[in-house]
Design goal:
Blueprint: H1 3-23, E1 48-55, E2 58-64, E3 75-81, E4 88-95, E5 108-117, E6 122-130, E7 138-144, E8 152-157, H2 178-181, E9 188-192, E10 198-204, E11 209-214, E12 232-235, E13 242-249, E14 252-258, E15 269-273, E16 281-284, E17 287-288, E18 299-305, E19 313-320, E20 330-337, E21 346-347, E22 369-372, E23 376-379, E24 387-392, E25 395-400, E26 404-406, E27 415-423, E28 436-439, E29 446-447, E30 455-457, E31 464-465, E32 474-476, E33 479-481, E34 484-488, E35 491-496, E36 503-510, E37 521-528, E38 531-535, E39 539-540, E40 546-551, E41 557-563, E42 573-582
Parallel strand pairs: 17-21
Antiparallel strand pairs: 1-2, 2-3, 3-4, 5-6, 6-7, 7-8, 9-10, 10-11, 11-12, 13-14, 14-15, 15-16, 18-19, 19-20, 22-23, 23-26, 24-25, 24-27, 27-28, 29-42, 30-35, 31-34, 32-33, 34-42, 35-41, 36-40, 36-42, 37-38, 37-39, 37-41
The chain binds (2R,3S,4R,5S)-2-(hydroxymethyl)piperidine-3,4,5-triol.
């Protein structure tokens, strides 16, 4: 090679190398919930409503490909990884063309999950297939010889037909003809028990009830004949759960699920049972800290067991849906650490890695608190702590992974004290920090939704601030309100306001979300230090908002109550709109 050629080869090599380093995706080291997650080619991962299968040393992530938006315009994608962080695109393993026309393009193919059958050596995918109006609600099954496909479509059906009384008023606008076609099959998941038997769990009875059925030996259908109580069961009756995930820990079965609010997030719920078919006991929302009421703006789709990280170690896998542009939806993966008795606190981290599971048995020292101007406190990072719990007047108030916290402003002349404890996701605490006491000045008229109640009880859901109990805009018979409290009978919200306020005012009524629910009827009450100051008439859907104005001079404990008016609490969505105290 002469010098000129050598220079040319050298220059070409440099150009190739530098362009490679521009386009190659650098290794990902952290989970970053909610951020765009790029695959090893540098393209956004398209695997929504997905599930992860571990096979050998490799993980396979299957999910809905929404690169072209809503509906099923592409099919089901698969990615593979050795470390759960860096994912290689294995392609579309079930293209839309393999499905009947009704489930392509505008049609729906959601929440695919894959399990391996050691007896047949096949990979079996189950999915929720639907028409664009969600009127079909069918289970689909596809099979492959390899985890990265190609998957061959086997067929679709509604697996179970059962007469539950067919209350078609439950989801207005959709009539899935459950009596005629069998019970609807929507959000679904698969689970393989420790004895090797596999199960499918899905939302049925128009979302009201979960169905769980054992699969046949091939995992390609439910076990037939279907016998309730033996091969299948109705679970969490009338609780309206979606996005179910079944998992097993220390011999008990758990169902993590979401509520039903379309693409909008809502509170998660965890339920536990001694046997797979239940009965399941509600444990409540496992999420803590800000955005815990919306599952950190996500919806569950899978829980990945990490047995190599010790008992109770899992990853929560959720979707942060963008209903208006599904292709912009992202993923929220968080450490999910369960104690022997099933308690779990799911907290949100901006950035984390699997090393989080390695320091869980180390002791933690107390945070040293600095009091800053503008009502905030801060502290130095405590070694091995993953988050910090904030206590207000000795009661757990919040949890944060930051080292700074803005104190919630209280009521005129009332003193509140705050302490901080270091914490790890296994539930180990440090001793409390020294306390910081604040006596709050008069800040004028106060919207109750801008303050923290002493306590709150709701018949369903949790107290909402400036939203209805369903997290929609407060709305009484068509009149919208920006401020106020969203509650659900039987509801009791107590504020310790310290005697200095003179007037309470609010608009009250049934929230418009329940506008078609004639069963909804409720009564509002206001109590002052144990005396009943006010009781409304029985209010029903479509009743106009009523105005309440009361003299509350000298009241220390202000209690807002909503009763079910004697006919049960179903759909009792109750708004205290613009609820305010002033002096
Ligand atoms: C909520 C479900 O969990 C999603 O999978 C999807 O079906 C949306 N509803 C559609 O609104």
């Amino acid at each position: 090679m002469n010098l000129k050629n050598a220079i040319l080869v050298y220059a070409t090599a440099i150009i190739l190398l530098s362009s490679y380093s521009t386009f190659a995706q650098s290794e990902k080291k952290f989970f970053e919930p909610g951020k765009v997650w790029l695959d090893t080619d540098g393209k956004p991962i398209e695997a929504h409503g997905g599930g992860v299968l571990k096979h050998g040393d490799k993980y396979f992530w299957y999910g809905e490909n929404h690169a072209l938006g809503e509906g099923n315009k592409t099919g089901i994608s698969c990615y593979s990884s050795n470390d759960l962080l860096n994912w290689k695109n294995e392609g579309v393993v079930l293209p839309k063309e393999k499905l009947p026309e009704m489930f392509r393009d505008k049609g729906v193919c959601e929440r695919p999950k894959v399990i391996f059958n050691p007896k047949t050596g096949k990979y079996i995918m189950w999915m929720h297939l639907d028409a664009n109006t969600y009127s079909e609600a069918m289970a689909g099954v596809a099979i492959a010889d390899k985890p990265n496909g190609p998957f061959e479509f086997q067929g679709y059906k509604r697996p179970i037909g059962y007469d539950y009384g067919y209350r078609l008023d439950r989801v207005p606008g959709i009539n899935p003809r459950e009596k005629e076609l069998g019970n609807a099959y929507r959000d679904m998941n698969l689970f393989v028990d420790t004895d090797g038997k596999a199960y499918v769990i899905y939302s049925s009875e128009e979302l009201a009830t979960l169905y769980c059925s054992r699969l046949n030996d091939e995992f390609t259908d439910i076990e037939l004949p279907a016998i309730q109580g033996k091969t299948w069961e109705r679970i969490m009756l009338g609780q309206f759960r979606e996005a179910p995930v079944l998992l097993k820990n220390q011999g008990k079965y758990y169902i993590l699920s979401s509520g039903t609010s379309g693409w909008d997030p809502n509170p998660a719920d965890l339920a536990v049972a001694e046997t797979l078919f239940g009965p399941y006991k509600k444990l409540g929302n496992p999420c803590f800290g800000s955005d815990s009421e919306t599952t950190f703006r996500s919806q569950s789709t899978c829980i990945i067991p990490l047995p190599e990280k010790g008992d109770g170690s899992f990853i929560y896998m959720g979707d942060r849906w963008n209903g208006a542009a599904l292709e912009k939806s992202t993923y929220v993966w968080l450490p999910f650490c369960m104690s022997q008795y099933g308690s779990v606190k799911l907290v949100s981290f901006d950035k984390w890695d699997l090393a989080i599971f390695d320091s869980l048995n180390k002791p933690l020292t107390s945070p040293v608190i600095n009091e800053n101007p503008n009502n905030s406190i801060s502290w130095k990072t405590v070694e091995n702590a993953q988050a910090y719990k904030i206590f207000k007047n000795g009661k757990m108030y919040s949890i944060t992974d930051s080292t700074k916290f803005t104190l919630p402003v209280g009521f005129w002349d009332v003193s509140d004290y705050f302490t901080v404890q270091a914490w790890n996701i296994k539930g180990i605490n440090s001793k409390p920090s020294v306390s910081v006491t604040k006596k709050w000045p008069n800040t004028g008229a106060v919207y109750l939704s801008d303050r923290i109640p002493e306590s709150s009880k709701q018949g369903w859901g949790t107290l909402r601030k400036d939203k209805s109990i369903q997290l929609t805009t407060l709305n009484i018979a068509g009149k919208e309100f920006k401020k106020g409290l969203g509650t659900h009978s039987y509801s009791e919200v107590i504020y310790r306001i310290g005697g200095n306020y003179r007037k309470f005012s609010s608009w009250i009524g049934v929230d418009n979300f329940a506008k078609n629910k004639t069963v909804s009827s409720l009564q509002f009450e206001v109590w002052s230090d144990g005396d009943l100051l006010y009781q409304s008439k029985v209010m029903r859907v479509k009743d106009a908002a009523e105005r309440v104005e009361l003299d509350i001079t000298g009241t220390n404990e202000l209690k807002l109550v909503v009763t079910d008016a004697g006919d049960g609490t179903e759909w009792d969505h109750s708004d205290w709109a613009e609820a305010k105290i002033e002096h």
